[in-house]
Amino acid sequence: MPQDRESGNRGRLWGYHMCQIVADHLGATLVNPGHSNEAIWNNRRILIKSAHYGNPEIGTTVATIDRVEAIIAALEDPDGLFTLYEITPEWFKKEMSKSKSTGALQTMMVKNSGVREIGIHRGRIQDH
Predict the structure, then answer these.
(1) Is 21:128 a contact under the CB 8 Å cutoff?
(2) 69-81: per-residue pLDDT in tens?
(3) Residue 99: per-residue pLDDT
(4) Phi and psi for 108 in degrees, rounded to 5?
(5) Which of 37, 40, 67, 81 has the most neighbouring CB atoms within 10 Å?
(6) Do 38 and 32 contact (CB within 8 A), yes or no?
């Protein structure tokens, strides 16, 4: 089902919620809580992205990818827990494609299946 303004806002807020949970798990510090998915972790600027089970992609802008040294993807598994994967901005850029959403002209997407294949495992968490 396509996203509308309301469902997009719910998704954005859930993303910030998950960003805080992931940051807490990693011991990272959010750069601008509730307004950005970027954090500082191990002296590196990272981007934290999340996706529910069945959602095939995560996305962000090229400008954001250019600002960070790593991406942490929290991908929900069939059991309801989230596995954390670390991927590089270089891999993201190599694999990205433009979002098909009409309102997301600058958003670039990567397939979660690829993240699961090549990402470095960084733990499992639950959405409290």
Answers:
(1) yes
(2) 999 999 999 999 9
(3) 84
(4) -110, 140
(5) 37
(6) yes
Mean pLDDT (whole number) for 62-73:
96
Q: Look at the chain and count its residues.
A: 128
Q: What residues does 60 pair with on adjacent strands?
A: 108
Six-digit token string for 19: 């960003």
Structural domains for the chain = 5-125 (3.40.210.10)
DSSP string, 7-24: HHHHHHHHHHHHHHHHHH
Relative to beta strand 57-61, strand 70-76 is unpaired
Contact status, residue 43 vs residue 28, Cβ threshold 8 Å? no
* Cα 10 to Cα 20: distance, rounded to the nearest angstrom: 16
The pTM assigned to this predicted structure is 0.91
